[in-house]
Amino acid sequence: MSRYDSRSGDPITYRDRRSDSGFGGASAYGSSVRSSSSRRDYDGAEPSRKLDLDGLTPFEKNFYVESSSVAAMSETEVEEYRQRREITVEGRDVPKPVKSFRDVGFPDYVMQEIIKAGFVEPTAIQAQGWPMALKGRDLIGIAETGSGKTLAYLLPAIVHVNAQPILAPGDGPIVLVLAPTRELAVQIQQESAKFGASSRIKNTCIYGGVPKGPQVRDLQKGVEIVIATPGRLIDMLESHHTNLRRVTYLVLDEADRMLDMGFEPQIRKIISQVTIGSADLKANHAIRQHVDIVSESQKYNKLVKLLEDIMDGSRILIFMDTKKGCDQITRQLRMDGWPALSIHGDKSQAERDWVLSEFKAGKSPIMTATDVAARGLDVKDVKYVINYDFPGSLEDYVHRIGRTGRAGAKGTAYTFFTAANARFAKELIAILEEAGQKVSPELAVMGRGAPPPPSGHGGFRDRGRGSGGGRPWS
Question: Under which main EC class is this enzyme filed (predicted)?
Answer without folding.
Answer: hydrolase
